[in-house]
Amino acid sequence: MDQQTQKSFERDLIALIPHLRAFARSLCGNAAMADDLAQEAVAKAWASRGSFTMGTNMKAWTFMILRNQFYSDKRRSWRSVALDQEMAERTLVANTNFDSAIALDDLRQAMLMLPENQREALILIGAGGFSYEEAARMIGVAIGTVKSRVSRARAELVQLFETGHYPRDGKPAGQAMASMLRDLERLAA
Predict the structure, then answer these.
(1) How many C-beta atoms surround the C-beta of residue 109 within 10 A?
(2) What Cα–Cα distance (Å) separates residue 161 from each residue in 125, 151, 176, 184?
(3) Do domains 3-81 and 99-188 have the same CATH topology?
(4) Tell me, what's the pLDDT at 5?
(5) Residues 11, 59, 73: CA angle, nearest 5 degrees
(6) What's the rounded Cα separation, in Å, for the pair 46 and 23?
(7) Which one, of 8, 10, 76, 5, lies nearest residue 43 by Cα?
(8) Helix 31-47 and helix 58-80, axial crossing angle in degrees, nearest 10
(9) Which residues does the UniProt record annotate as the domain RNA polymerase sigma factor 70 region 4 type (predicted)?
(10) pLDDT tens digits, residue range 95-106?
């Protein structure tokens, strides 16, 4: 990697740090852990900069690094720390506000009613945080087409929520975010 390419890579990576932190927080649910995870993902991206192809989607690449690190940490963590029963009893708190999980699951189910091309555009722009230009390149259509699909998808979701006419699939509401992230990962790949 030449000096100019490395500077460009460094600038682009630094610009992605707020997005990585936000994505890490959505995975961890803990600000301190998320910051550590984002920092580790940036360090891994920097160490692997030679394997990145300039001109491809750095945001998707770094998100994949962060996600993989998160799951690697999760797999290791259950083996490395013994449960301290006394500490657990003092710190475990039941979440009695399920409204946000239910609302997110309602969104997931309503989005299943959208045509595939509208759902795809909405996931990339809304959940993925990609720009219209990036989404257009990923999908292989014009920017105006992506904007139109997102606009139609949003209007359709408003109508679906107003009428309540969308099927409920009975899946646990807590899995809605994981389902959306899997869709995002598939689309960004």
Answers:
(1) 19
(2) 20, 16, 17, 22
(3) no
(4) 87
(5) 105
(6) 18
(7) 10
(8) 120
(9) 105-157
(10) 555 566 667 777
Q: Which residues of the chain have pLDDT under 50?
A: none
pLDDT score at 43:
93
Under CATH, which architecture does the 99-188 domain have?
A: Orthogonal Bundle (1.10)
Q: What is the pLDDT of residue 121?
A: 87
On the 0-12 / 13-18 / 19+ scale of CB atoms within 10 A, 101 is: middle
User: What's the CA gap between 12 and 134, in Å, rounded?
Assistant: 14
Q: Which residues contact 122 (CB under 8 A, 6 or more apart)?
A: 111, 114, 149, 150, 153, 154
Predicted local distance difference test score (pLDDT) of residue 61: 93
> How many helices, marked H, and strands, marked E, lie in the chain?
9, 0
* pLDDT value at residue 83: 53
Whether 124 contacts 139, CB under 8 Å: yes
Domain ranges of the chain: 3-81, 99-188
Task: Check: CB of residue 188 under 8 Å from CB of residue 63.
Answer: yes
Q: What sign results for the dihedral spanned by CA atoms 142, 118, 129, 66?
A: negative
CATH architecture of 3-81: Orthogonal Bundle (1.10)
Asked if 64 and 185 touch (Cβ cutoff 8 Å), the reply is: yes
For tokens 């219209």, the residue is: 132
